[in-house]
Amino acid sequence: MGTMRDRYVDATVEKLIIYFMKTILRLQESGIERLPLENKFSEPIKGFLDLAMELMIGGEPEETAELALKSEYDFILKNFDCDVRTILCLNIIQKLSCHIHYDKDYYGYILSIGNLWGNSVFVYASQTFYINMPEECKEKYSINDLIKYIPKELLRPDDY
User: If you placed Cys at 160, which of 5, 25, 33, 61 could pair as Cys (CB 3.0 to 4.6 Å)?
Assistant: First the structure.
């Protein structure tokens, strides 16, 4: 059967997780002012991500956003030929956009799906995401223990 990464992770899944890491960093820095990020995904991921970001930036109540995303998700499944990785991407979009918008500790959720992080996500997290996390989150999730092993010349703190 293989690992979770072997079964589910591909370049699109990785790019999507990095997209949300960058979204979190921009929100942390300047709120919704610099959002949404450029969306270069193909359909149906592109349209679903656009909707999720519109709902998040527009400040829709959680219940409304969940209903809209669920309805759009069901529509996509009925009208597009989706493989399991595309469906995973749609679920990642729904979960992360809701956690980022409605949870106080959205770092916990994105860190908790680490079994879906491929190599490029780990590289981005190590070079940019971890070092830009708030100190209380670094402490809570023992991120400083990871950061101390990253060579300083590899860090890219402004890559978001």
Answer: 25
Please, are residues 124 and 21 in contact by the beta-carbon 8 Å criterion?
yes
CB atoms within 10 A of CB 18: 22
Amino acid letter at 68? A
Please indicate, yes or no, if residue 105 is contained in any of the structural domains. yes
3-class SS of residue 52:
helix
Answer yes or no: is 107 within a domain: yes
Mean pLDDT of the chain: 95
Summarize the chain as % helix, strand, coil (round to 5).
Answer: 75, 0, 25
Q: Is residue 91 part of a domain?
A: yes
Range of the domain at 66: 4-115
Given a cut of 90, whether residue 3 has pLDDT beyond it is no
Residue 139 lies in a domain: no
State the total domains in the chain: 1
pLDDT at 1: 57
The pLDDT tens digits of the residues spanning 38-57 come to 999 999 999 999 999 999 99
